[in-house]
Amino acid sequence: MKPFAFARPGSVAEAVREVSAEPNAVFLGGGTNLVDHLKLGVARPDLVVDVRTLTSRETTDTADGGLLVGAAVSNSELAADRRVREHYPVLAQALLAGANGQLRNLATVGGNPLQRTRCVYFQDVTTACNKREPGSGCAAVGGYTRYHAVLGVPAALPDATAADTCIATHPSDMAVALAALDAVVHVLGPQGARTLPFRELHRLPGDDPSRDTVLGHGDLVTAIELPPLPMAARSTYRKVRDRASYAFALVSVAAALDVDGDTVRDVRLALGGVAHVPWRATRAEEVLRGGPATEHAFRAAAEAELAAAQPQPGVDGGNGFKIPLLTRTITATLRDLTEGATS
Amino acid sequence: MDADIRLTVDGELHELTVDTRTTLLDLLRERLGNTSPKKGCDHGQCGACTVILDGERALLCLALAVAHDGAEITTANGLAPEGELHPVQQAFLDHDAFQCGYCTPGQVCSAVGLLSEVDRGWPSHATADLTSDPELSDAEVSERMSGNLCRCAAYATITPAVQQAGGAR
Amino acid sequence: MTDLLEPRAMGRDLVRRDGVQKVRGTATYAYETPVESPAFCHPVQATVARGRITGIDTEAAEALDGVLAVLTSENAERLASTDDAELAVLQSPDVAFRGQVVGVVVAETSELARQGADLVVVTYAEQEHDSALTVDHPGLYAPEKVNPSYDTDVVQGDVDAELAASAVVVSHTYATAMVHNNPLEPHASTALWDGSSLTLWDSTQGVHPDRKAVCTVFGLEEEQVRVVCPYVGGGFGSKGTPHANVVLVTMAARALPGRPVKLALTRQQMFSLAGYRTPTIQRMQLGADRDGRIRALTLDVVEQTSRIKEFAEQTGVPARMMYTANARRTTHRLAALDVPVPSWFRAPGECPGMFGPEVAMDELAHELGIDPIELRVRNDPERDPETGQPWSSRHLVECLREGAERFGWAGRDPRPGVRREGRWLVGTGVASSVYPTMRQAQSTADVRFEDGRYVVEIGAADLGTGAWTVLPQIAADALGVDVDDVEVRIGDTRYPIASVAGGSSGTNTWGSAIAVAAREFRGKFGTDPRDGDEASGQVDQADTDDEHATYAFGAQFVEARVDVDTGEVRVPRLLGVFACGRILNPRTARSQFIGGMTMGLSMALHENSVWDPRIGQVANHDLAEYHVTVNADVGDVQAHWLDEEDPYVNVMGAKGIGEIGIVGTAAAVSNAVWHATGVRVRELPVTLDRLLTALP
Ligand SMILES: Cc1cc2nc3c(=O)[nH]c(=O)nc-3n(C[C@H](O)[C@H](O)[C@H](O)COP(=O)(O)OP(=O)(O)OC[C@H]3O[C@@H](n4cnc5c(N)ncnc54)[C@H](O)[C@@H]3O)c2cc1C
Ligand code: SF4
Ligand code: FES
Ligand code: FES
């Protein structure tokens, strides 16, 4: 680990100024991802600016009936919040499906969606990785791809040597729920405060896999806003993983469903473990809206969403299984929500 | 680069100058000689370094000491005075809920933390109805203890030990 | 046959003597040894899978304030012996596998050591490497022996003729994954060289074997080296032999005389430096009559070893004695690859070697329409099929029967894939387990009368197995005194020599030595000794029996549930019944059994070191990506045992219990998953992607 300076300024504004002024500075939240990366040599900052005690640790009701969650609220506190449990169960469940209790007590709402990929090559500085070392290539192509993307990736076997190749997934569970809930991110940047839709926070690798999000240097997440969404009271998060707990998602589904008799009035659907971003399944939503609330229709919607999915071959059999797995998991999750609606 | 911090560990106040890179885990183990929290992975992946940090169970290996200036830490060794055992520790002994003992201080602290979380109505992944307060079922205990790996695989005795301590509270 | 000790303390449910220290965290493990101003080490590892170092630039590391030494192949001391290539650390510029140690940085703090290691720049002339195991690898060869000294190939009878005469032949290839021991305490040590002698606090399964290896490598006399290890945070075989880290920490200590140094491998480093179980490919044939009598059994095993050091896992060995067969062939072929050095992992041989055969038995039972328990009963041999010797005791059938009773096996519908409860497909499975009862050749115990108590000293190790608690029980009965009047001291080469805690042989070996010492003590001093009276006993003075085949047996039962939508597997019930001779302490024994069984569950469902042959390393080399079972994966785990005392094995009547729990469990899980889903998973681990396409 290389040495770094540490600062805990007096205010968020000061924190933004300090980071903006130093090109190689980073914010520190709970540290559960950043410190991991410091040790691995994946993150090599000169200055670490602690914001955990600066940003808000409150969750407040907004005027329109939503919630505003301060960036320093811990993942545990948010999951335990009665308002979240009642009105946004998908979010509470997503949080509780992530990491373990000890990590959730440290991890912050600001830091969680900004955690970086778990791609094993990204985490190993002795291998090629465009995200960590732009231009070095992508060791994941044809490698261990079990936890890699099938959506938003160019082709079944992308060019491992190209500088823009990255087939990594975003690992956060919380982010999948936030994508489904149309959350809003509150940002304080060098140019002042702004908001952006959570769905626009993360980006596909495009021509620069090193950037996970659209945030610029010095942009501080100060809060996450949950807009009112009555249908979210019937929502759920289904995470499929390689062991029963304390494991990242192979795939996950965040869903909210509003059914009127046998018809889908409205739906929110987002997928995790499948793309460089928490994947909002807009195509499936379109197919579902106004259609029948049947298992058959759910499967058809899932298949529509996955029509463009690209299995990645790899040393352990690749990740093609994710496509049927997702189809089945989406179908089952929506079915369970419907059954909940009628019972 | 160095920084000055204050830290209370098992009731004792320390004023220290630390390398900004030093984690609370290395600080306790390598400088303060408090090796009750264990290092099993150093990356948040095993739970061996679990303690009670400012009232909640937390891992020490991913916590920079400088970022926790003023913190209060209770390790497994600080849960009860010398010569006595915390009810969770007694329950682990009663159920032989360990073998090599390396994960054990972390398991014990995790159990202490989870019982407090359940008391406050915090849900878990195993809580079927999020709107109600969770019961301390075996499934709840297992899920909540899943952040503590035991390579000796004493899980089947850990869960009843936590139940015993939970029942006694 | 021996005169069994009268069990008074033995068999009692005594609480662990080291329990309070362990629940408080005050038991001191190797790295934690309090020493005056220690220095810290961080290894530098090779980043190519095969090649030659062309340059090492240590300038930046050495310039770092606080760095005390940087050792590489260019400046490290020349070792006295490089016979063991794994331990020939920093002796040449050759790189034999990725992750091999190419240097170590010693510094005032662990942060500086790590930073220094990052600053060392090594350049390589990379060579093409070959690290992928395949069933038809061109380099496959027959090793001279398999671990530790079994015949590589054994052929009995006319296999082809018996196969041809069989009414049913089951013929499949099974595979077990590469898996890493991953004890929770990393491989770690504290070392102090005072200029002429070494004190090594090392996390080891045997202080004496550890010392012997260090003495050989460094050319030291045994008097010059003391190894201390009161507690071990698990080992499961990987701490049974020293690895490169032990040499490295000793070198570092010798480079800084008078200064204690500490070294702990990181979890990531353990995936290339601390041993592992080879992946195995098992080609298996079972030919049988309609009534289930096995006519032919063949098991041809392919596995790997490292190019620089051979370790041949004895995977085919249990199939030589488990069941009857008119003809039988078991073979082992190895590929020597550019990979880290494999080694012992809990029940080497038996653990992987009871996967293929026990799944094949299930397949055969299904083919024949015979209950899987009944099939095993019909093929239960009266004598050891390999040697013809009678069994000292073999109660496999009783284990199967009692397990069936306890598990609720009766009336089981044999059809696969027909039981559904809510979203779960439900099935049950069974498999047998076995483990040889072994006693090591060397171990000595001292008994001394001290302040009204009996002090027993022996350099044994407690890896969580309970030796701290169980050895006093044996000593008490051997001396005929109350267990509270006995103190046992272990884990230090200052005590008499003891064998490695491995192969479930510890209690058998050390206990036998203690019993001899007690006998000698009583013989010399009677029942009214004086302070300071002392006697010693050696295991080779204990009665031995060469006439019998000595094994422990068991049966594992599993209920598996498979999520009908996702293929996720859960195992709500795991039940084992074991016949392991006398159980010396039911409390610690139970922990051993359920620990072994749960580790078997972990092997069945989760564990898989995914090898990336392109770069030559384990891709998922940490505990987030290499999954071991967590608490939520575990439901009701029960271990039961038969009342068995075996007068042929030792005066305790006790067989080993440390490994048998893991044996067979993975097969029982795979068999239960088949019963639940109809999908036969012949390759471990049983992950959801292997089930998905066949789900409704
Ligand atoms: C073993 C293990 C298992 C895990 N399993 C899961 C899992 O199953 N599911 C899951 O979702 N997560 C999982 N996690 C990840 C965990 O949830 C994240 O590490 C955590 O949420 C990150 O939050 P933090 O506050 O600790 O972030 P930090 O580590 O402090 O920061 C993460 C990143 O965000 C930046 N940052 C932090 N705060 C802000 C801010 N306010 N504004 C702008 N930038 C900021 C930092 O610079 C850094 O780049 C796991 C982690 C570990 C170690
Ligand atoms: S997938 Fe992305 S993160 Fe992983 S190695 Fe390739 S570029 Fe790096
Ligand atoms: S050492 Fe902290 S979680 Fe493993
Ligand atoms: S008791 Fe050994 S790791 Fe848990």
UniProtKB/TrEMBL annotation, chain A:
Superkingdom, natural source: Bacteria
The keyword Oxidoreductase is annotated on this UniProt entry: yes
InterPro entries for the chain: CO_DH_flav_C (IPR005107), CO_DH_flav_C_dom_sf (IPR036683), Diverse_Substr_Oxidored (IPR051312), FAD-bd_PCMH (IPR016166), FAD-bd_PCMH-like_sf (IPR036318), FAD-bd_PCMH_sub1 (IPR016167), FAD-bd_PCMH_sub2 (IPR016169), Mopterin_DH_FAD-bd (IPR002346)
Domain FAD-binding PCMH-type: 1-231
GO molecular function: FAD binding; oxidoreductase activity
Keyword annotations from UniProtKB, A to Z: Oxidoreductase
This protein's name: Xanthine dehydrogenase YagS FAD-binding subunit
Pfam families, sorted: CO_deh_flav_C, FAD_binding_5
Species the sequence originates in: Geodermatophilus nigrescens
From TrEMBL, chain B:
InterPro entries reported for this sequence: 2Fe-2S-bd (IPR002888), 2Fe-2S-bd_dom_sf (IPR036884), 2Fe-2S_ferredoxin-like_sf (IPR036010), 2Fe-2S_ferredoxin-type (IPR001041), 2Fe2S_fd_BS (IPR006058), Aldehyde_Oxdr_Iron-Sulfur (IPR052914), Beta-grasp_dom_sf (IPR012675)
Pfam families (UniProt xref): Fer2, Fer2_2
Name listed for the protein in its UniProt record: Xanthine dehydrogenase YagT iron-sulfur-binding subunit
The keyword Magnesium appears for this protein: no
SUPFAM superfamilies per UniProt: 2Fe-2S ferredoxin-like, CO dehydrogenase ISP C-domain like
Organism of derivation: Geodermatophilus nigrescens
Secretion signal span: none
Pathway named in the protein's UniProt entry: Alkaloid degradation; nicotine degradation
Residue intervals of the 2Fe-2S ferredoxin-type domain: 3-79
GO MF annotations, alphabetized: 2 iron, 2 sulfur cluster binding; metal ion binding; oxidoreductase activity, acting on the aldehyde or oxo group of donors
Matching PANTHER family: OXIDOREDUCTASE WITH IRON-SULFUR SUBUNIT, OXIDOREDUCTASE, IRON-SULPHUR BINDING SUBUNIT-RELATED-RELATED
Keywords: 2Fe-2S, Iron, Iron-sulfur, Metal-binding, Oxidoreductase
UniProtKB/TrEMBL annotation, chain C:
Pfam families: Ald_Xan_dh_C (PF01315), MoCoBD_1 (PF02738), MoCoBD_2 (PF20256)
Keywords carried by this UniProt record: Molybdenum, Oxidoreductase
UniProt keyword Oxidoreductase, yes or no: yes
Bias-annotated ranges (Basic and acidic residues): 524-533
Gene3D superfamilies with a match to the protein in the record: Aldehyde oxidase/xanthine dehydrogenase, a/b hammerhead, Aldehyde oxidase/xanthine dehydrogenase, molybdopterin binding domain
Region called Disordered, residue ranges: 524-543
SMART domains referenced in this protein's UniProt entry, alphabetically: Ald_Xan_dh_C (SM01008)
Organism: Geodermatophilus nigrescens
An annotated Gene Ontology molecular function: oxidoreductase activity
Keyword Transcription annotated: no
Protein name: Xanthine dehydrogenase, molybdenum binding subunit apoprotein
Every Aldehyde oxidase/xanthine dehydrogenase a/b hammerhead domain range: 24-128
